[in-house]
Design goal:
- The chain is α/β, with parallel strands linked by helices.
- The chain folds into 2 domains: 6-170, Chitobiase/beta-hexosaminidase domain 2-like (Chitobiase, domain 2); 176-495, TIM Barrel.
- It is built from 15 helices and 18 strands.
- The strands form 3 sheets. Strands 10, 11, 12, 13, 14, 15, 16, 17 and 18 form a 9-stranded mixed sheet that branches. The chain has a 7-stranded mixed sheet with strand order 1-9-6-7-5-3-4, covered by helices on one side. Strands 2-8 form a two-stranded antiparallel ribbon.
- Strand 11 and strand 12 (217-218) form a beta hairpin.
- The longest helix is centred in the N-terminal third of the chain and has 18 residues, at 67-84.
- The N and C termini lie far apart (53 Å).
- 52% of the residues are buried.
- It binds acetamide.
- Residues 339-340, 370, 387 line the site of acetamide.
Length: 527
């Protein structure tokens, strides 16, 4: 059976390119939405007089070649059905379909690559073309923003449901666009994780990193050590009940993310940040006795035992955990943490990383770690996640000379747990205050001194959860900063804060309709 030779759109008639420049238009509200897309597309041209209206009879045609394209069509229909109340049937079609919304695999401009898309809107039809289902999915997120803001409501609203006529060509600047959620300091159930995934997907992020183990909690079932979750999963910061993901829960999360073209990256932080493991598995401790569970917020006090007598037992533990995680994880990365191992002697830390990073390779995955791991001079396949607060770091520069690649999570720019202002009720301020303009005003390609842009894979926005208790708290810290970072990592770097803040403002009513909590920053001219 052919799996990749199928193209729906090879002979599709393309819309004429008599598009008009944005600036000189006097436009409808639908046309205005074309200018307000976040993250900004690579190119947007409007065609006044060519607006498209969704009606009760609109059919979503999804390229007949691929069941996956049908699924993207169903996803799009699922976004549009609640507020419109329309049936929006999804039917297999080919490029000759002349009405409705049509999703076609193949036939897009080659520039769009593996994650981009082209969107054509005319009075007759909306055509979304991409070279991959992931590209169609990204295009569906853009199309969603072309409808009025009340399209986001979960209950039936009044239309009309008009989309501005025009042409969009779009593709991402960086390949790695991510968010991280710390589920150790506070535990969040599968439903909350699904909301978090949806928030990432809305702004075209494509990786979700789960910080699954730290001093306060071990959150993933490992069959070789059931006590990790029975004991280590039983509490959290503040002494609440904690929790953990069974393998079935984790698999459900991976599947939900994959349906949104998001890769899940599991992290087990080691050899520090391991009190929950030490409390569960006595033989990881030098005195073979478990310490009590920990529900405070200090860092740097725990370490696996590094003495010779414990090497074999610690190595077996790490091997079992990495093997089981690798078996559960279809994505390429396993994250081994490695930050703030202040209770592990440096020589032992280096030896530990040199033994441990290859275990990830052994199980067919690529190792990731916080940039502290660069002390152990890992090979260049290991992806280093930079979490410092300044652009200059000599260990980073040396690793860059060896060819290392970097994911940027500079704490003073991307940490979603930093307060917006001193008055922000949630979060911390050790890396500084991050107002939305701060989150926006930097360039990942040139940020790290001595690291060429081709060695920067992208940006990830971590949310540590010492002070974060629930979905509303998560949303308040993400919005409006996550769209600001999403634009930095998706869009051409030519956009400026002064025009971004206007586009960002237009997102506010969408969040209100979607019941997403957000910080109404005074820096943004909300409508
Ligand atoms: C970190 O914030 N310790 C990675």
């Amino acid at each position: 059976m052919a799996t990749i030779a199928c193209s729906d759109a090879g002979t599709a008639d393309r819309e004429d390119s008599a598009a008009t420049a944005l600036s000189s238009q006097k436009t409808s509200a639908a046309q205005a939405n074309l200018r307000n897309i976040v993250p900004a597309p690579v190119s947007v041209q409007s065609r006044s007089g060519q607006d498209f209206s969704l009606t009760a009879h609109t059919v979503i045609g999804a390229g007949a070649c691929s069941a996956e394209v049908q699924r993207v069509g169903e996803y799009l229909a699922g976004l549009l059905r609640p507020a419109t109340g329309f049936a929006l049937r999804v039917r297999p079609v080919d490029a000759t379909a002349h009405t409705g919304i049509v999703l076609l695999l193949g036939g897009a401009n080659a520039q769009v690559g593996t994650e981009g898309y082209e969107l054509d809107v005319t009075t007759e039809r909306v055509i979304l073309r991409a070279n991959t289902p992931a590209g169609l999915f990204a295009g569906a997120q853009t199309l969603r923003q072309l409808f009025p803001a009340n399209i986001e409501s979960s209950t039936r609203q009044n239309g009309p449901w008009t989309v501005g006529g025009g042409h969009i060509l779009d593709f991402p600047k960086f390949e790695f666009r991510g968010g991280m959620l710390d589920v150790s300091r506070h535990f969040f159930g599968v439903d909350t994780i699904k909301h978090y995934i949806d928030h990432l997907a809305r702004y075209k992020l494509n990786h979700m990193h789960l910080h699954l183990a730290d001093d306060q909690g071990w959150r993933i079932q490992i069959d070789a050590y059931p006590q990790l979750t029975a004991i280590g999963g039983s509490t959290e910061v503040g002494g609440g009940a904690g929790g953990f993901y069974t393998k079935a829960d984790y698999t459900e999360i991976v599947k939900y993310a994959a349906a949104r073209y998001i890769t899940v990256i599991p992290e087990i932080d080691m050899p520090g940040h391991v009190n929950a493991a030490l409390a569960s598995v006595p033989e990881l401790n030098c005195n073979n006795q478990s310490p009590p569970l920990y529900t405070g917020v200090d860092v740097g006090f725990s370490s696996f035992c590094m003495d010779d007598a414990h090497r074999a037992v610690v190595s077996k533990f790490v091997d079992d955990v990495v093997r089981e995680l690798a078996e559960l994880t279809p994505g390429p990365y396993i994250h081994l943490g490695g930050d703030e191992a202040h209770s592990t002697p440096v020589a032992d830390y280096i030896a530990f990383e040199q033994r441990t990073l290859p275990v990830v390779e052994k199980y067919g995955k690529t190792a990731m770690g916080w940039h502290d791991i660069l002390k152990s001079t890992p090979d260049t396949r290991t992806l280093a996640q930079y979490w410092g607060t300044t652009p200059t770091d000599s260990t980073v520069e040396q690793a860059a000379k060896r060819g290392a690649k970097f994911l940027i999570s500079a704490a003073n720019l991307t940490y979603m747990d930093m307060k917006y202002t001193e008055a922000t009720p949630l979060g911390q301020d050790w890396a500084g205050l991050i107002e939305v303009q701060d989150a926006y005003n930097w360039d990942p390609a040139t940020y790290l001194t001595g690291v060429p842009s081709k060695q920067v894979v992208g940006v990830e926005a971590p949310l540590w959860t010492e002070t974060i208790l629930n979905l509303a708290n998560i949303e308040f810290m993400l919005f409006p900063r996550i769209p600001a970072l999403a634009e930095r990592v998706w869009s051409p770097s030519t956009h400026t804060w002064d025009e971004f803040k206007v586009r960002l403002a237009s997102q506010g009513p969408r969040w209100k309709n979607a019941n997403i909590d957000f910080y109404a920053s005074p820096q943004v001219p909300w409508p």
